[in-house]
Write a structure and sequence with these properties.
about 80 residues; alpha+beta; three-stranded antiparallel sheet; 3 helices; 3 strands; globular
């Protein structure tokens, strides 16, 4: 059974990700968000994808020179805080 504080922690993590886009850089990767707010990349990716689903962010594919393409996240222009 999950602890009673799990939803509160999830909401805090989502808010910290939103703050990173509102107060920080316009573009972020999973790695940059994880480093900025101090969470794992797996957790950052989950919350970033949630923000895409609710249309706070949009994701774009970024092709590098080597390896698989990454995702770059950008705040949607019409998003409300």
């Amino acid at each position: 059974m999950a602890s009673a504080t799990a939803p509160a922690r999830e909401e805090l993590a989502r808010q910290r990700i939103k703050d990173a886009f509102v107060r920080g850089a316009d573009l972020h990767t999973t790695e940059s968000v994880a480093r900025t707010i101090g969470i794992s990349q797996t957790t950052a990716r989950r919350y970033l994808e949630y923000c895409v689903e609710v249309r706070f962010l949009r994701a774009q594919i970024s092709y590098g020179r080597i390896g698989r393409p990454g995702r770059v996240y950008k705040r949607c222009g019409a998003a409300k805080q």
